[in-house]
């Protein structure tokens, strides 16, 4: 909505100030023209131009594809940037448009979808209608969504499960009741416990996310979070606070026990401690996170030892192989190994092309040749890779 208004005055910089929703530098100073209008009717937006992305690479990675069915969140968590970007009023796509898009994605071979809404379960009636439509159209796929613990119920989770939902992620943020009030999360520790129980009952995997470095954080508040994780016996993530511009914690940092130590935005990725409180330094926070993850690190080391010794269960072998597979695929994708090694084999048959590419990739990634060839053959069979024997080349399939 902003760009079509801005393009006609692109060559007339003095008119840029009249275009709402942009920021630019002028005479060494930043000029903000204020917030642009939010799109009110999401159905008016075209679908994301996914065909312009290298979809075969995404498919090879095997990660879920994202879908957005609504924008906005009415809650007021003081650390949240998402809410500031999408606004407090929730705006929805219509159920039929959502399910059409899902059907389309599944027909293109994407059978794992992540619903990346800020709060998918904001409106229970709508969630039920989406689930009903998925079931009625018999669309078979696995999906996950972001939810809030206070929006879940046995009934809604059952609908979600019947429609293929395998997991949900929710922010608990802290296991300390006072902290939950301070950050205006609007939930209680008891609601978090109940949410995990309800998910298990519905056979949906719950994942709880916590923040480290909240205003006034102490060793005790962090220990409360860790104790809650252990009690809930749940998959979890601990993420460092990233006090982005626009968040209440940053704009009113002085009112909280919080000192922001860095404006290096590359460190605002939730993996770096960029704040301190009067009780905790960044290194205290890092030590805590290391301690929180230690059981996972130890369990994984024990599992890989069992698998290496031939004592692992079938499930443990599957998990270990899956990590090996991901490491290999990640190495191939992040170094563009198909693009760099897929050509220059003129006169070779399809089988020879696959063998030669596999050998080069095996050398560059230090993975066994047989394993690399297994995945490259699989990608060819699934049509993620296309073989061009005439040109002596293998490349990612194009839409
Ligand atoms: S953290 Fe979640 S619930 Fe809170 S404001 Fe942000 S999107 Fe809404």
CATH architecture of the largest domain: Alpha-Beta Horseshoe
Shape: globular
Output the strand order for the largest sheet. 3-6-7-8-9-10
Oligomeric category = single chain
CATH superfamily of the largest domain: tm_1862 like domain
Strand proportion, as a percent range, falls in 15-25%
How would you describe what is shown here?
- With 399 residues, the protein is α/β, with parallel strands linked by helices.
- The protein has three domains: 2-32, no CATH class; 44-306, pyruvate-formate lyase- activating enzyme, CATH 3.80.30; 313-396.
- Helix content is 43%, strand content 15%.
- The protein has helices at residues 2-6, 55-61, 82-86, 95-107, 124-136, 154-162, 177-182, 189-201, 219-232, 248-251, 282-308, 314-334, 337-341, 350-365, 369-381; strands at residues 23-26, 29-32, 65-67, 70-71, 91-92, 112-115, 142-147, 165-173, 205-212, 235-240, 259-260, 275-276, 385-388, 393-396.
- The protein has a six-stranded parallel β-sheet. A two-stranded antiparallel sheet has the order 1-2.
- Helix 9 links the parallel strand 9 (205-212) and strand 10.
- The longest helix has 27 residues, at 282-308.
- It is globular, with a radius of gyration of 24 Å.
- The mean pLDDT is 95.
- The site of iron/sulfur cluster has 10 residues, from helix 3.
In summary, what is this structure?
43% of the residues lie in helices and 15% in strands. With 399 residues, it is α/β, with parallel strands linked by helices.
């Amino acid at each position: 909505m902003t760009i079509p208004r801005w393009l006609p005055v692109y060559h007339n910089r003095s008119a840029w100030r009249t275009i709402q929703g942009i920021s630019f530098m002028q005479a060494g100073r930043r000029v903000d023209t204020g917030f642009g209008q939010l799109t009110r009717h999401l159905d008016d937006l075209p679908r994301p131009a996914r065909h312009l992305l290298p979809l075969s690479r995404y498919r090879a990675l095997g990660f879920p594809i994202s879908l957005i069915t609504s924008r906005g969140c009415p809650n007021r968590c003081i650390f949240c940037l998402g809410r500031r970007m999408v606004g407090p009023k929730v705006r929805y796509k219509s159920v039929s448009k959502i399910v059409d898009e899902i059907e389309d994605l599944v027909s293109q071979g994407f059978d794992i979808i992540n619903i990346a809404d800020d709060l998918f379960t904001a409106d229970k009636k709508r969630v039920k209608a989406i689930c009903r439509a998925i079931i009625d159209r018999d669309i078979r796929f696995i999906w996950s969504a972001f939810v809030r613990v206070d929006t879940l119920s046995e009934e809604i989770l059952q609908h979600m499960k019947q429609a293929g939902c395998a997991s949900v992620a929710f922010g608990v943020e802290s296991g300390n009741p006072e902290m939950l009030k301070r950050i205006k999360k609007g939930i209680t520790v008891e609601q978090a416990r109940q949410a995990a129980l309800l998910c298990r009952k519905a056979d949906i995997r719950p994942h709880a996310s916590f923040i480290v470095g909240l205003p006034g954080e102490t060793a005790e508040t962090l220990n409360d979070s860790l104790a809650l994780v252990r009690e809930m016996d749940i998959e979890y993530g601990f993420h460092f606070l990233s006090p982005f511009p626009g968040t209440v914690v940053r704009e009113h940092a002085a009112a909280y026990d919080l000192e922001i130590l860095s404006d290096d935005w590359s460190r605002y990725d939730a993996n770096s401690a960029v704040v301190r409180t009067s009780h905790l330094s960044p290194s205290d926070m890092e030590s805590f996170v290391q301690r929180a993850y230690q059981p996972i690190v130890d369990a994984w080391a024990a599992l890989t030892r069992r698998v290496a010794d031939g004592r692992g269960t079938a499930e443990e072998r599957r998990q270990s192989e899956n990590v090996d597979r991901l490491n290999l695929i990640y190495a191939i994708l992040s170094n563009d190994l198909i693009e760099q090694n897929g050509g220059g084999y003129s006169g070779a048959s399809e089988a020879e092309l696959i063998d030669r590419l596999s050998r080069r990739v095996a050398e560059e990634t230090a993975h066994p040749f047989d394993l690399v060839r297994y995945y490259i053959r699989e990608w060819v069979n699934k049509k993620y890779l296309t073989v061009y024997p005439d040109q002596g080349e293998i490349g990612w399939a194009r839409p």
